[in-house]
Amino acid sequence: MKTIMHNSISLDGSFISFDVDMGLHYQLTSRFKADAHLIGSETVRAGGELYGIPSEKESDFIKPERDAGLPYWIIVDSKGKTKGLLHTCRSFEPAFPISN
After folding, report:
1. Do the strands 72-76 and 36-40 form a parallel or antiparallel pair, or are they unpaired?
2. Per-residue confidence of the chain (100 residues) as pLDDT tens digits?
3. Predicted TM-score (pTM) of this structure
4. How many CA atoms lie within 13 A of 99 on its CB side?
């Protein structure tokens, strides 16, 4: 078994005061062919603040059909910071091509 870890972080732990090209970021990280991405609850919360949190729709309660080649998201949240936000993760679709 081989484990590859990639960690994206700024010195102060946040991306503020500049725009991040998330499409480019994930396009580059997709080259690692990860089986899973470990995501912190603060990342989900901050993304919601930055990009907005849409209201839940009925379709958010139906498991989406996903490409089997996409990695799993493992969200660490021991304090419930993502309460009311996970529907934004379930409906996330990559806006970039996945390299194989």
Report:
1. parallel
2. 677 776 766 666 566 666 777 778 778 877 887 888 888 888 888 888 877 888 888 888 888 787 777 788 888 899 999 998 888 887 766 544 444 4
3. 0.64
4. 11
